[in-house]
Each structure stands twice: as structure tokens, then as C-alpha cells.
Amino acid sequence: IVATAVVEDGQMVVKVEEAQMGPFNFPDSLIDSITQTVNETLAGLLVDADLDITRLEILEGEMYVVGTRKT
Question: Is there a smaller number of Cβ atoms within 10 Å at the N or the C end of the chain?
């Protein structure tokens, strides 16, 4: 799976660019569904945190999310 993650309007947004299993590429409809599921899950996790994300850094095996509380 190849994906990008960015900060948009204080929220983390993931876009799955491509995915494959062995030599077979996943169809675009499945990639779109994966993207939507990931973003809905992230939104659910982060809504409880009440954060305004300002920076996102993804390294191999690590992810740093920097932000401030909205309150």
C-alpha cells in the first residue's frame, strides 16, 4: 500500500495512492473505500482528542503528530 498523509484544516487526511497484492493491483473503487475507512477511523480517534493538528511527520515505523488543543 502506498499512501500520503497531509494536514488539511487542522485534520490529518490520508490518501491511499495505490495498493496491490502480489502482482495484482487493487481496483480504484477499493482504494477509494480504503481511503474513506482510514479517514473516518482517524477522525473518530482524533475528535476525542480535540486537537488542531499543525504538523505531521511520517518516518519508517513512526508517526509524529503535532498540534494544539482546541479548547
Answer: C
Q: Could you tell me the sign of the dihedral formed by the alpha carbons of 58, 59, 62, 67, in that order?
A: negative
Residue from 24, 7, 25, 5 nearest 15 by CA: 5
Can you give the pLDDT of all 71 residues of the chain as single tens digits?
A: 999 999 998 888 999 999 999 999 999 999 999 999 999 988 887 777 778 889 988 888 888 888 888 77
